[in-house]
Design goal:
The chain has 499 residues and is mainly alpha-helical. It has 19 helices and 3 strands. A 3-stranded mixed β-sheet has the order 1-2-3. The relative contact order is 0.14. It comes from Caballeronia choica.
């Protein structure tokens, strides 16, 4: 039955509707704005690295003294993610996304007025909270507007905004800091998110969230018409076919329930290990290469190769995830990352080999880490998707903090480049093994993640009844039919697994 064909009760499945229609200009607009939000995150992350030396020079302090400033944003990122996910699952993705983008824009601009380390540390912490809330909600909002068969690739296109923003941060810093000082970077980094927050007024709320939360049928029809441009959509009742029980739970309780807990813990562990490797390499790679006997110029060139293949890795993983078992694709990327990092430690005597292996490690690292968000968005249902993605990000940030601090601790303890890189291959192998386990659980009973997704699911069948004359839903709770209907997202995962 076509998604436009309604049953006797006038019911339409919105996810099936999205899956059956071409990607519209309206959906491209949603993707573009979410891309810009992620780019703002990348800009901020890269620019602070260029700002630090200028701040240290103006305030006559050592760059080491700026350690709290650099780590404050990471702590804020973790807290922001943990807080924002449950809020978005309760009040909506769009509201929380607008608030978070505006929040980090305002506090970034406020950094212009910082006059000492303490003030700048607090302001960077507040900026981090906004940034931490923005990424999981842009991920969730976009994931609920894209067709299932292209979801991973389109999400990874959005995540490429981080690489774009990071590159822009370096270029803008090089252009502005010499003539206008380091405060100019925070002016640009503050104005752009504030403008983006206003741009979010053009975006709708998540269509799946609207159905689950019983929004008026006319509001849902209006959004669907912008996607498919079919004025004949006259359904009075909308549903989302997915793996979630009929009884609504608190978002965090849902992702930690017996049904989802195993997958949640495995996702947390894999993402934690990935960020541990990422932040260790990005924070300490120049120092490691320099201490291995290379010149400062060689160290800079080798380090620059690490993010150079990021877009290739992200798009490649996204394309493969939409065609094969997504868990195994990401696990394979982590496995290749571990091999490449280990090999880097064995070839420190050859600059050419080290450069090549660094590039390969960067392709695998970016592809695997960015794809983890797409994997989480695929795994969780609408009721807990924002919380699931956000909490994975929040827990993973702890790995990032450990990596940023741990690299310096290992260097201070006297470990050389070969030893540190060999140790860093272990978390990559752990992440790979974790996802292979996730892809192999209960393989004999109709595919991987079967026990994680559970055999019996109910579709969230929330009737969006025709509104009254004022465009509102009738008062009182809306009942959900007890019958079970097709599980499209779970079927999508199992289809990949059975290949």
């Amino acid at each position: 039955m076509s998604a436009l064909d309604m049953d006797a009760s006038g019911t339409l499945d919105v996810q099936k509707f999205i899956d059956e229609h071409p990607f519209s200009r309206y959906q491209w607009l949603i993707l573009f704005i979410c891309f810009l939000i992620v780019a703002a995150d990348g800009f901020d992350t890269a620019a602070i690295g260029f700002v630090a030396p200028a701040v240290a020079r103006e305030w006559t302090i050592s760059t080491v003294a700026l350690g709290p400033v650099m780590s404050a944003a990471l702590v804020g990122l973790a807290i922001g993610a943990l807080l924002a996910g449950p809020c978005a699952d309760r009040i909506g993705r769009r509201k929380v996304l607008m608030g978070s983008v505006l929040f980090f824009g305002v506090w970034t601009a406020a950094c212009v007025f910082a006059s000492d380390i303490g003030q700048l540390t607090v302001l960077r912490f507040l900026t981090g909270i906004g940034l931490g809330a923005a990424l999981p909600n842009s991920t969730t909002l976009l994931s609920e507007y894209v067709p299932a068969k292209r979801r991973a690739l389109l999400l990874n296109i959005m995540f490429c905004g981080f690489t774009f923003g990071a590159s822009a941060g370096g270029l803008v810093s090089a252009a502005l800091i010499p003539d206008f000082g380091w405060r100019a970077i925070f002016v640009v980094g503050g104005i752009v998110p504030i403008v983006l927050a206003l741009g979010l007024l053009a975006l709708p709320e998540s269509i799946c969230f609207m159905v689950v939360r019983n929004w008026p049928a006319e509001t849902i029809r209006r959004v669907l018409r912008r996607i498919a441009d079919k004025p004949a959509i006259m359904a009075s009742r909308f549903v989302v076919s997915e793996h979630v029980e009929g009884t609504r739970r608190a978002p965090v309780a849902l992702i930690l329930s017996a049904q989802y807990r195993p997958g949640t813990l495995l996702l947390w562990l894999a993402y934690f290990m990935g960020l541990l490797v990422y932040y260790t390499l990005t924070s300490w790679m120049p120092t490691l290469v320099r201490d291995a006997g290379f010149t400062l110029r060689q160290a800079a060139l080798v380090t620059a190769l690490f993010p150079a293949g990021g877009v290739l890795g992200a798009l490649g993983c996204g394309w493969l995830m939409d065609r094969f078992n997504p868990c195994r694709v990401v696990a394979l990327a982590f496995l290749l990352l571990g091999v490449a990092v280990w090999a880097m430690g064995q070839r420190i005597d050859s600059g050419l080999s080290l450069a090549f292996l660094t590039f390969i490690a960067g392709v695998c690292m970016t592809g695997a880490q960015m794809s983890m968000l797409a994997l989480a968005a695929l795994f969780y249902p609408t009721d807990g998707r924002a919380s699931g993605v956000a909490w994975m990000l929040g827990i993973g940030r702890l790995g990032g903090i450990l990596g940023a601090v741990g690299g310096g601790t290992l260097l201070a303890a006297g470990y050389n480049m070969a030893a540190i890189l060999t140790m860093m291959s272990i978390p990559a192998f752990v992440a790979a093994a974790t996802l292979f386990v996730m892809a192999s659980v209960e393989k004999g009973s109709s595919g991987s993640m079967r026990s994680l997704l559970s055999v019996s699911r109910r579709r969230t069948d929330l009737p969006a009844q025709a509104p009254d004359g004022l465009g509102r839903l009738p008062d009182g709770p809306q009942e959900r039919p007890p019958h079970s209907l097709p599980i499209r997202e779970a079927d999508f995962v199992r289809d990949h697994v059975q290949r």
